[in-house]
Amino acid sequence: MLTTVYGESVMDRLRGTRVALGTMYFGTTVDERTSRELLDRFTERGGRLLDTANCYAFWAPGGTGEESELVIGRWLAATGVRDELLIATKVGCLPDPLDGPFPESAEGLGPEVVFKQFERSTERLGRPSVDVFFTHADDPRTPLADTLGALSELVRSGRVGVIGASNPDAVRLSEAARLAADDPTTAAPRVIQARHSYLWPDPAADIRPQLPLDHSLVAHAREHGALLQGYSPLLQGALTRADRPLAPEYRSPANERRLSRLRELAGRLGVTANQLSLAWMAGGPVPVMPVLGVSSVAQLDEAMDGLELELDQEVLDELDALAPLGRSDAAPAGAPVSGGR
After folding, report:
1. pLDDT over 70, % of the chain
2. Is pLDDT at 275 greater than 60 in this prediction?
3. Packed helices 67-79 and 32-44: angle between N→C axes, nearest 10 degrees
4. pTM here?
5. Selection from 209, 228, 236 nearest residue 293 by Cα
6. What's the rounded Cα separation, in Å, for the pair 113 and 91?
7. DSSP label at 32?
8. Cβ neighbours around 325 below 10 Å, total
9. CB-CB contact of 54 with 69 (8 Å)
10. Using an 8 Å Cβ cutoff, are 275 and 303 in contact?
11. 128-150 b/e with 16+ CB inside 10 Å = b?
12. Is residue 234 over pLDDT 70?
């Protein structure tokens, strides 16, 4: 498998990182002033990984998909902290045309798209390189070898540290690993990002192109030394706020029991359900790095405080007892994962 000095440096820094700041709505529903305040506070509190994409947030009113990267780029230029932070961005989900039906109109992962969108992302970010370059979703229309070939060229050129896979299919990840094992010039994904929370979506719900973290992805990460990230960990505030009902795919008796236990334990410990769920997610033997989506400094501080919690084993056991599939490591492929414990 292709590795570089730059890539190994990125992996070393990622292994020492507990959290990423998601910037999906920066420049659209989160205005630029607030976005900069969040970036300032995140770095003040030791945060070192920013997560964005070339399509954030095209669906917001007036959005084109360029806003998040542009805000980050302007903030990096103004603060001069480029070398202190890790930047991750993504390719593959920008609609083409922009008003086309989604996800059917997604740009995909053809080599020409990968190269073109990488150049546009780096231009907006004001950086010649990207530390982690994610495929945003699987593209069954493009041969995997073609996509990996383009991504590997960016790694070989020193413009990408490591490649990642967001919303990946475990079968395609295994195929990528085989291709990389057979060819020292081919890189394989070393960061896996999927939807993950203490609650579990209905497997029958169609949330494409999003995919939840499951045991097959965790098994792949263990086998290949990949890092795991979970986005939407706080379910848009529904873990703590009575005015934020769960999304339809999370409405089930099992999730009601999980949420009740989470809130009960949080009250006993004197923390919020958000904080307890983040500590649970990040604190297992196989940690899942939360990708935080926040819209105020108060929300960010609450989350960062949660990630500083050290949970007793008794509390972890109580949470795992109602987590998806509990502590089982022998679950079938496609079954949800309990956070790695």
Report:
1. 94
2. yes
3. 60
4. 0.94
5. 236
6. 8
7. H
8. 17
9. yes
10. yes
11. ebbbbbbbbbbbeebebeebbbb
12. yes
Cβ distance 136 to 93 under 8 Å?
yes
What is the C-alpha to C-alpha distance for residues 230 and 195, in angstroms, rounded to an integer? 5
Q: Which residues pair with 129 in a beta bridge?
A: none
Q: Would you state the structure tokens that stand for residue 291, as one six-digit string? A: 């990708």
Two tokens at 282?
Answer: 């990040």
**Cα–Cα distance measured from residue 91 to residue 256, given in angstroms and rounded to the nearest whole number:** 35
Structure tokens at 38: 């969040």
Q: 258 to each of 148, 179, 247, how far by Cα in Å?
A: 39, 40, 15
Write the single-letter amino acid at 246.
L
Tokens 């295994």 correspond to what residue? 174
Distance, CA of 248 to CA of 286 (rounded, Å): 29
254 pLDDT higher than 50? yes
pLDDT at residue 83, as a whole number: 81
Task: Give which of 145, 147, 38 is closest to 90, Cα–Cα.
Answer: 147
Q: What is the mean pLDDT of residues 30-34?
A: 98
- pLDDT at position 250 is 94
Residue 249 is encoded by which pair of tokens? 């795919």
The full length of the chain comes to 341
**Residue 214 Cα to chain centre, angstroms:** 14
Residue 322 has pLDDT above 90, yes or no: no
Terminal CA-CA length for the chain: 29
CB 126 within 8 A of CB 87: no
Could you give the CA distance from residue 280 to residue 306 in angstroms, rounded to a whole number?
9
User: pLDDT, tens digit, for every residue of 146-159?
Assistant: 999 999 999 999 99
Interval 57-102: pLDDT, tens: 999 999 999 999 999 999 999 998 878 899 999 999 999 999 999 9
